[in-house]
Amino acid sequence: MGSFTDRTLDKEPRGAAAHGDGAVTAADAGLEPPGDPAPSVAHGARYKAKVDAVFPAWRRDLAEHRDCFLGVSLENDMFTRPRLFGILEWISRRFPRCTVLIGDSIHRITLESAKDLPAQAALDEALRLGRAFVQHEGHVFDAFREATKFSFVTCSEIQTAPAYAAHHAQLRALFHRNEVFRTSVESFGRNYHAKHSSHLSEAQSQHRIRRSADYFLEEFAIFACLKDQGIPVMVYPGSFSTLSEIADGRHPDAPRQLRDLTVVSLHLRGR
Fold this sequence. Notes:
Elements: E1 7-8, H1 39-42, E2 47-55, E3 67-72, H2 81-92, E4 97-102, H3 107-115, H4 119-142, E5 149-154, H5 155-158, H6 162-177, H7 179-196, H8 202-228, E6 233-236, H9 241-247, H10 256-259, E7 262-270
Parallel strand pairs: 3-4, 3-6, 4-5, 6-7
Antiparallel strand pairs: 1-5, 2-7
Helix pairs in contact: 3-4, 3-8, 6-7, 6-8, 7-8
C-alpha cells in the first residue's frame, strides 16, 4: 500500500489462478478450495459469489490483474461471515493480493444520520466498529492465506494523506458545478432512502440525501487514493451507480484515477 499503514496476514500466498467471470465452484479450472479452513469457518460457507457486472464492460477479463481491493461496509449484512466467506473464496481464485478497505471513518456519517449520534461520538463508534471487524473476522481472511495475501487499511488512515484532500476537493468541486454528476450522486442516495427510510419527513429525507452525498464523495476520494497506489480493481458485493458511471466514461471530469478503475459488482447466492 505504499504510503499507507496496512496490516498484512503473515503468510505469503502460493499464487491464485485468474479466471473469467462466473460462479465460484471447487471445479473452477481444476482448483479445489484454497488452504484448509478451520471447520468453524468453512461451516459458514453457504454462499457463492458470481460477477453481476463489470464497469467498464470492455475490462471484463480480469486475468491480467494481480491486485484488487475489497470495500467493507460496516454493519452491513453483506459482510456477515457466511457471505464474507463466499466473497473471499471468489477473490482467492483470481487475485494473489487483495487490500481490504475497512470503511470506518466514513461510517460515522451513517451513524450521525441514521442514529442521531453527535459527530465525535459517531466517529469514535465508527472507528471502534472498524477495529472490531478486523478482530472478529480476521481468521476468515486467514483461511485463504495459501492463495491470497490480504492486507488491511482503513478509511481513517487514507483520509490523513495529502492525496486524499486533493481528490476530495476535486470531487466536491465537480459535485457543485456539474449538474449531471450531482444528480447521479443524489439519485443513488435518494433511491436508497426511499427503500429504507420511507417513514421520514421530507426535511429528514433531504438531510439524509445530503449526508449520503457527503459519504459518497469521501468514499470516492479514498478509492482514488487506492488507485494511486497501483490497485486497479475494486470488488464489492453490490452496486455503485455513480462510480460505475465514472468507470464507464460517463463523467469525464471526474478524477482520472476513478475513470481508470475497474469496478466489479458481485452477486451472492445461497448454495
